[in-house]
Amino acid sequence: MRVIAGDARGRRLEALPGTDITRPTLDQVKEAMFSIVQFDLPGARVLDLYAGSGQLGIEALSRGAARCVFLDENREAVNIVMKNCKTCGVFDRSRVNIGEAARYLSACREQFDLVLLDPPFHGGTLEKILPSVEKVLAPGGIALCESETGLVLPAEVGSLTLKKQYKYGKVLLWKYTKPMQPAGEEDAE
């Protein structure tokens, strides 16, 4: 596993051994994810939920994101994220937290331009967490989700709108966007 592009290009990343705790995103899928959001990355505030090794948030930082908050509920994963951030020279633009995603999002007062979601492929995690993601996503922001094929997500989640779905082998990517202003405000003038 490595950083694909940007300032940290080619740097190797550590991952937790085994696949029962984390499931690293394949390079082909990661390249596709960042092609989708490439013009939205410079200066972006990023949240990497279910961070695992931190590879998605680190890729965002390497490609020009201003800062990234990493969240995982596994202490070993959090330690790996911190080590990988230091190895890639992005630790000063990173904040690494341990905790459960729903609890973190309910207490979060920050706004993010990009939320990267790569949860475990079981248990209906995306369906449950997307309404909470909407609350921390800045106007005009993007939530980019990774799931297994066969999952069906709604076209709208609160103010989030599904813009496009992409398929890469056994993986689906879902791009949700939040409008620049709440519905109805454009007519308020």
Please characterize this protein's 3D structure:
This is 16S rRNA (Guanine(966)-N(2))-methyltransferase RsmD. Pfam families: Cons_hypoth95 (PF03602). InterPro entries: DNA_methylase_N6_adenine_CS, RNA_MeTrfase_RsmD, SAM-dependent_MTases_sf. This protein is of the alpha/beta class and 189 residues long. The chain has one domain (27-187): Rossmann fold (3-Layer(aba) Sandwich). Helix content is 26%, strand content 28%. It has helices at 27-36, 55-62, 75-87, 101-107, 125-136, and strands at 45-49, 67-72, 94-98, 112-117, 137-148, 156-157, 160-168, 171-177. An 8-stranded mixed beta sheet has the order 3-2-1-4-5-8-7-6, with helices on both faces. Helix 4 packs parallel to helix 5 (125-136). It is globular and about 40 Å long. It starts with 26 loop residues before the first helix and ends in a 12-residue tail after the last strand.
